[in-house]
Amino acid sequence: MAKFIEGDLNASGLKIGFVVSRFNVFITEHLLSGAIDELVKHGVDDNDIEVIRVPGAFEIPLAAKKLCSRKNDAIICLGAVIRGETPHFEYVASEAARGIASVARAADIPVMFGVLTTDNVTQATDRAGGKCGNKGAEAALAAIEMVTLCKKL
Fold first, then answer.
1. Which residues contact 1 (CB under 8 A, 6 or more apart)?
2. Does the structural domain 16-84+95-152 have CATH classification 3.40.50.960?
3. Which reaction does it catalyse (predicted)?
């Protein structure tokens, strides 16, 4: 019979670090509050949450890499890149994703991707607590599950 190994959502005693972009703060603050609410609801103590703010999504990977060397069980990266009239969106969104993925592969802890990449503000607000839920909260749940899974592996 196959053996299944899964994480759970018991976050008691976990220490979680955030790297949050200040650019599009009207979106990222909702992502952050949704994520923190979810962590606390599942047992993380407020004192075990550390939030690092960076100027924009492009700067998230470096801060996440630095944060990995601290005593966190997981890092949650939050940002919002909204398409404009120039190709800048593609460069920032692509490099933020690539950089966070690179940090995640090198880290010995889960590094979660909670950066919205949307075509417009409406799509971003819908995903930051609006009609499409809160992607920050979803990233927090994924972080808890991955931490508990990694402890079983």
1. none
2. yes
3. (2S)-2-hydroxy-3-oxobutyl phosphate + 5-amino-6-(D-ribitylamino)uracil = 6,7-dimethyl-8-(1-D-ribityl)lumazine + phosphate + 2 H2O + H(+)
Q: How far apart are CA 87 and CA 62, in angstroms?
A: 23
Q: What is the pLDDT of residues 88-146, one digit of tens each?
A: 999 999 999 999 999 999 999 999 999 999 999 999 999 999 999 999 999 999 999 99
Q: Which three-class secondary structure state does DSSP give residue 3? A: coil
Q: Is 21 helix (H, G, I), strand (E, B) or coil?
A: strand
Element (H, E) at 134: strand 133-134
Convert the pLDDT of each residue in 37-89 to its tens digit: 999 999 999 999 999 999 999 999 999 999 998 899 999 999 999 999 999 99
Distance CA 19, CA 58 (A): 11
Domain assignments of the chain as residue spans, ordered by start: 16-84+95-152
| Catalytically annotated residues | 88
